[in-house]
Amino acid sequence: MKRLYAITLLVLCFSATALAQKVESKMEVRYFDVDPCAYIKPIVAELKVDNSKGLISEQVEIKTNQKIEDLKTYAIYVVTQKHKCDVLVAPTVSIVKEDDKLTIYVTGFAANYLNWRTCTDTDLNWMQFAPVSRKQEEKKK
After folding, report:
1. Alpha carbon distance 132, 110 (integer Å)
2. Where are the beta strands (DSSP E) in the chain?
3. Which of 32, 51, 89, 122 has the most other CB atoms within 10 Å of its CB?
């Protein structure tokens, strides 16, 4: 019986010391923000405006609640696909809302890209280069 008391006393002592122990862990992390800036020569293309089409005026009807910028982009996309052109030069977009229907009016000049080439030194005279980092992009949002 004395043995049982002694064993029980030892188990209690060890468990009490185990509970009283504090475990501290320390972790140190060094974080370096990598912000690479790559400079590349851009690709330059010429635009040929299709004078035969003249000023294009189209309307696009949409039944959705999207952001205004997304709707404008979509409407310009629809018009460029319809007129088989790469881009609209000087597009103007107006949006009219009637009940739950949006009508987007798009006007502009149809144009296609020609003469794709790598930028030369003479092209650099009229271009301005500014490196854009991820931090600057995050600040814009």
Report:
1. 31
2. 43-49, 55-62, 87-98, 101-118
3. 89
pLDDT single digits (tens) 77-87: 888 999 999 99
Tell the residue number behind the tokens 């006007």, with chain if given.
107
- CB < 8 Å & 24+ apart, contacts of 69-76: 71/95, 71/102, 71/104, 72/104, 75/104, 75/106, 76/106, 76/108
- State the pLDDT at residue 61: 81
Residue whose pair of structure tokens reads 């690709």 in the numeric block: 43
Other Cβ atoms within 10 Å of 104 Cβ, number: 22
**Burial of residue 79 (number of CB atoms within 10 Å: 0-12, 13-18, 19+):** buried
Question: Token digits for 123?
Answer: 């092209």
Q: Over 80: is that where the pLDDT of 133 sits?
A: no
Q: What is the mean pLDDT of residues 16-22?
A: 51
Beta strands at 87-98 and 101-118: parallel, antiparallel or unpaired: antiparallel
Torsion of CA 31, 35, 36, 40, to 10 degrees: 170
